[in-house]
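User: I'm new to structure prediction. If I give you an amino acid sequence, what do you actually give back? Let's try with this one:
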Amino acid sequence: MTWMAVAGGYEVTLRRGAVVCRNSAGEELRSVPRTVRGDPVVTGLEQLAEWLEQHGRDCRADVERWMIRSLPIPTITLAEVWADEAWRRAHRPRGRRPERGRQLGPRRRGLPARRRRQRRRRGQP
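Assistant: Good question. You get back a string of structure tokens that encode the predicted 3D arrangement of the chain. For your 125 residues, that looks like this:
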């Protein structure tokens, strides 16, 4: 998000769900000054941060409900919601991922034990 000018020569922006303020010299402040807190721009950013947080919770709850109920999700629905970062985050797997450059072995790929044994006999990984 870009910096927006407010009263007193300050500028504010929204970063990671919090309003961040900087002075006219461009130095970021630890907190938003009291003189700026009542500004409509700051109030709007705080409301936006609250809405984004609630939206993220709603997205995660919807995805969890889809998974628990094993509901079929139409591809067009996924394509439409994928543009939204909150939906993308909710759909990402929560499990561990392999380190960069490492491949998952057959057991971790979910191959049945019989197929793993067959592959070992043939000398395949």
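You can read the tokens as a compact description of the fold. Here is one thing that stands out. The helical segments are 34-37, 40-69, 75-81, 85-91, 113-122.
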